[in-house]
From TrEMBL:
<feature type="region of interest" description="Disordered">
    <location>
        <begin position="269"/>
        <end position="293"/>
    </location>
</feature>
<dbReference type="GO" id="GO:0051082">
    <property type="term" value="F:unfolded protein binding"/>
</dbReference>
<comment type="function">
    <text>Calcium-binding protein that interacts with newly synthesized monoglucosylated glycoproteins in the endoplasmic reticulum. It may act in assisting protein assembly and/or in the retention within the ER of unassembled protein subunits. It seems to play a major role in the quality control apparatus of the ER by the retention of incorrectly folded proteins.</text>
</comment>
<keyword id="KW-0472">Membrane</keyword>
<dbReference type="GO" id="GO:0006457">
    <property type="term" value="P:protein folding"/>
</dbReference>
<keyword id="KW-0732">Signal</keyword>
<keyword id="KW-1133">Transmembrane helix</keyword>
<protein>
    <recommendedName>
        <fullName>Calnexin homolog</fullName>
    </recommendedName>
</protein>
<feature type="disulfide bond">
    <location>
        <begin position="109"/>
        <end position="144"/>
    </location>
</feature>
<dbReference type="Pfam" id="PF00262">
    <property type="entry name" value="Calreticulin"/>
</dbReference>
<keyword id="KW-0812">Transmembrane</keyword>
<feature type="compositionally biased region" description="Acidic residues">
    <location>
        <begin position="271"/>
        <end position="282"/>
    </location>
</feature>
<keyword id="KW-0479">Metal-binding</keyword>
<dbReference type="InterPro" id="IPR018124">
    <property type="entry name" value="Calret/calnex_CS"/>
</dbReference>
<keyword id="KW-0677">Repeat</keyword>
<dbReference type="InterPro" id="IPR001580">
    <property type="entry name" value="Calret/calnex"/>
</dbReference>
<dbReference type="InterPro" id="IPR009033">
    <property type="entry name" value="Calreticulin/calnexin_P_dom_sf"/>
</dbReference>
Length: 536
């Protein structure tokens, strides 16, 4: 038994030593690697340009003893660069670019990408590194507004024009929307294939020379529209035109209003014409610190007139408005096929003077790695930046540096979500109920608002009933729609206005203008008390 135990221990030690040797070998195979376990000062150069005020820090990743390069302030520009010992030739075999980024405070608007810079002979200096510094590749996450992508941009020189052109990977993957550590990998292969991996999983593949994968294409089109050709003045490209023979009907009154007073309406008995809907609060007093010169003349806040609470209404009575049966709007002649239509004009194609052919992209060598970003969030952590020539080297780094952290963070996230779900609503359920509360405020559902709110409150108290609550509210909404369509009862005027628009569109000719619909109804609720001027 003892012999077996010793044997197992020897096997384990041998296996562990093999793993260490493999890791050491992979480290030797890396062209460049920075784990940021040591302070970056002296190795990375912070830009001294005036626009870049953001402060970089050597900091631990939250929850780990692992260090990284940290963005410390929000709403700042950051720029920092690391020169490589020797330029990396991207045309020679496979090249793997990889690094980790973690948005510890989330990311709503900002970048977390790297720029792989051309040699300094291209016209840049480390201490003057900025967004104009010439790069060969830009790679990494970018989020702001409608933008959410993991960029891959190749900047290549056109051998005919001599100009550098940015070629963007089409349909790049989206950025993970959490606060965990993620590893981004770009694999450039000698057969012109480009692969983008997130956390070791392939998210996008393309071909550098394919016009479907890069915009603009790396190989320009053979022909281009003639820039000097202009559309002839007599070229008619209108598919349909107003009927020149159409005549406005005699009974079409363009000046008829969309709504008219309901003359049959009678002022309700007990209506208080001389009473305002709001009155000054009789209990309000002018504050002792009120300064008439600074704050203006003090006015008591308004409250609902108590006399109006029991009356049908207060103030000047006006007849309600109703749909005008004579309303038709502005008359426009109907459209007919254009007999002079010649089709959509476009200039003729001519040979592209900047066309060239390539068997593979012309990559400028990489001489430095830079981070040049603008971000509205702090807490972005960069770590384990790697350049290698073999995919298995990058995989080894992911397995040994990123994966252990990610597993810990994922477990912690899961535990927090489970705890939140047991104490309160889970994330999904909270989103669902927030949406349902908005449904309850839809005007045409006002009759059913209390019923909907009752369902929502039951669901919040018993989160496992979420699906049942959804079904119940859908039934209520469908019932409301059914009643709206088929009920013979008079509907609110706002619904009648919708019918006007629909009827008008079916009238003779074409009513091109649909006047804006404004609802003016008596409001029974009181306005909020006025604020002191110094409080506004």
């Amino acid at each position: 038994m003892i012999m077996m135990g010793r044997f197992a221990l020897l096997v384990f030690l041998e296996f562990a030593s093999m793993q260490l040797l493999c890791i050491a070998a992979d480290h030797d195979a890396a062209i460049f690697y920075d784990s940021f376990e040591e302070p970056f000062n002296g190795r990375w150069i912070v830009s001294e340009k005036d626009d870049y005020k953001g402060i970089w820090e050597h900091s631990k990743s939250e929850g780990h003893d692992d260090f990284g390069l940290l963005v410390t302030e929000k709403a700042r520009k950051y720029a920092i660069v690391k020169e490589l010992e020797e330029p990396v030739n991207l045309r020679d075999g496979t090249t793997v670019l990889q690094y980790e980024a973690r948005f510890q405070n989330g990311l709503e608007c900002g970048g977390a990408y790297l720029k792989y810079l051309r040699p300094q002979e291209a016209g840049w200096k480390p201490k003057e590194f900025d967004n104009g510094s010439p790069y060969s590749i830009m790679f990494g996450p970018d989020i702001c507004g409608l933008t959410n992508k993991v960029h891959f941009i190749l900047k290549q020189k056109n051998p005919k024009s001599g100009e550098y052109v940015e070629h963007h990977l089409i349909d790049p993957p989206r950025v993970p929307s959490d606060k965990l550590s993620h590893v981004y990998t770009a694999i450039l292969k000698p057969d012109n294939e480009i692969s983008i991996l997130i956390d070791g999983e392939a998210k996008k593949k393309g071909n550098f020379l394919s016009a479907q994968d890069f915009d603009p294409p790396i190989i320009p089109a053979k022909t281009i529209p003639d820039p000097n050709e202009k559309k002839p003045e007599d070229w008619d490209d209108r598919v349909r035109i107003p009927d020149p023979n159409a005549v406005k009907p005699d009974d079409w009154d363009e000046n008829a209003p969309m709504e008219i007073e309901e003359m049959e309406a009678v002022k309700p008995e007990g209506w208080l014409d001389d009473e305002p809907e709001e009155i000054d609060d009789p209990e309000a007093t002018k504050p002792e610190d009120w300064d008439d010169e600074e704050d203006g003349v003090w006015e008591a806040p308004k409250i609902d007139n108590p006399k109006c609470q029991t009356a049908p209404g207060c103030g000047e009575w006006k007849r309600p408005m109703k749909r005008n049966p004579a309303f038709k709007g502005i008359w426009n002649p109907p459209l007919v096929d254009n007999p002079n239509y010649k089709g959509i004009w476009k200039p003729r194609d001519i040979p592209n003077p900047n066309y060239f052919e390539l068997d593979k992209p012309y990559f400028d060598p990489i001489a430095a790695i830079g981070i040049e970003i603008w971000t509205m969030q702090e807490g972005i952590l960069f770590d384990n930046i790697l350049i290698a020539k073999e995919e298995n080297v990058a995989k080894s780094y992911r397995d040994t540096t990123w994966k252990p952290k990610f597993v810990v963070e994922k477990e912690k996230q899961k535990a927090e979500e489970e705890a939140a779900g047991s104490d309160d609503l889970g994330g999904f359920q909270k989103v669902v109920f927030d949406v349902l509360y908005k449904f309850a405020d839809i005007p045409f559902l006002s009759k059913y608002k209390l019923q909907i709110l009752d369902f929502i409150e039951k669901g919040e108290k018993q989160p496992n009933l979420t699906i049942g609550v959804l079904v119940s509210i859908v039934v209520v909404i469908l019932t409301a729609i059914f009643m709206l369509i088929f009920s013979g009862k008079k509907q609110p005027r706002v619904e009648k206005k919708t019918e006007v628009a629909a009827d008008t569109s079916n009238d003779q000719g074409s009513s091109g203008e649909k006047p804006a619909e404004e609802e003016k109804e008596n409001e029974t609720g009181g306005a909020a008390p006025r604020q002191r001027r110094r409080d506004t």
